[in-house]
Design brief:
- Helix 2 packs antiparallel against helix 3 and helix 8 packs across helix 10.
- The protein has a seven-stranded mixed sheet, with helices on both faces.
- The N and C termini lie far apart (55 Å).
- Helices cover 39% and strands 23% of the residues.
- The protein is of the alpha/beta class.
- The longest helix is centred in the middle third of the chain and has 14 residues.
- It has ten helices and seven strands.
- The chain has one domain: Vaccinia Virus protein VP39 (Rossmann fold), CATH 3.40.50.
- It is globular and about 40 Å long.
- Bound molecules: S-adenosylmethionine.
- The site of S-adenosylmethionine has 19 residues, from strand 2.
- This is Methyltranfer_dom domain-containing protein.
- One of its GO terms (molecular function) is transferase activity.
- Keywords: Transferase.
- InterPro entries: Methyltransf_12, SAM-dependent_MTases_sf.
């Protein structure tokens, strides 16, 4: 019952915690294993078919909910850049990576307009981050420079219904597709097993030059 309450009221609780300046509590809340029931992190990362040794960015990593699944997929020879504009979550990620002995995880302090990734990556993954970004067509047009030639961008965001929509923490699939197309990407896959979110995978429409 408590888990169900936590899940259904999640956006409201997160907004209240963030407004009250309780970022660490908000990130711990996002990392609650009760979330696994609907977020299905293992199935999400499996659907991404990440090759061992890949370089991946978890953009808007928060408290690292997906970082550990991505780190497992890339393995010790790969790299996960956990990028966020908030230092609180990045500190939590560094501490947890240390506890888990995961040397493939590195934190990156982004700015609102620049992910600041340290090298091009095969995959940029965003979960519940898309709706936070400003001027998204310009943002993703610039982000193409942080992808390898065969690189992909995977976006998971809340569908426009219920509390996420009410609090502006959602985008329609149509909006994401239109904005990404105007940024120079095309949709290559749309896994549809998540109950509350859409899950869209894009590639640059035109291959980048040498
Ligand atoms: C709702 S949280 C999602 C965290 C994590 N991806 C998850 O699924 O638990 C959104 C995160 O995006 C971050 N964020 C917002 N704007 C950003 C930007 N321009 N660049 C990087 N991160 C950003 C926020 O600081 C926050 O940690």
């Amino acid at each position: 019952m408590l888990a169900r309450l936590r899940i259904t009221q999640a956006p409201l609780i997160l907004v209240l915690l963030a407004t009250a300046g309780c970022a660490e509590t908000a990130y711990r809340y996002m990392n609650d294993p009760a979330r696994d029931e609907w977020q299905q992190p293992k199935a999400v990362v499996e659907a991404l078919k990440i090759a061992p040794g890949s370089r991946v960015a978890d953009l808007g990593a928060g408290g690292g909910y997906f970082t550990w699944y991505l780190a497992d997929a890339v393995g010790p020879q790969g790299k996960v850049y956990a990028a966020d504009i908030e230092e609180v979550g990045l500190r939590m990620v560094r501490e947890e990576a240390g506890r888990r002995g995961l040397h493939q995880v590195e934190t990156v302090r982004s700015t609102a307009t620049d992910a600041k990734l340290l090298e091009p990556v095969e995959l940029i993954f965003l979960c519940n981050t898309y709706h936070h970004l400003r001027d998204r067509p310009a943002y993703f047009r610039a982000l193409a420079g942080s992808l390898t030639p065969a690189g992909r961008i995977a976006i998971i965001d809340y569908k426009p219904s219920g509390l996420p929509w009410l609090f502006g923490h959602a985008t329609s699939e149509e909006t994401v597709r239109t904005e990404m197309e105007s940024a120079g990407y095309h949709l290559v896959e749309a896994p549809d097993f998540l109950p509350k979110q859409h899950f869209l995978i894009f590639r640059p429409a035109l291959p980048r030059g040498p």
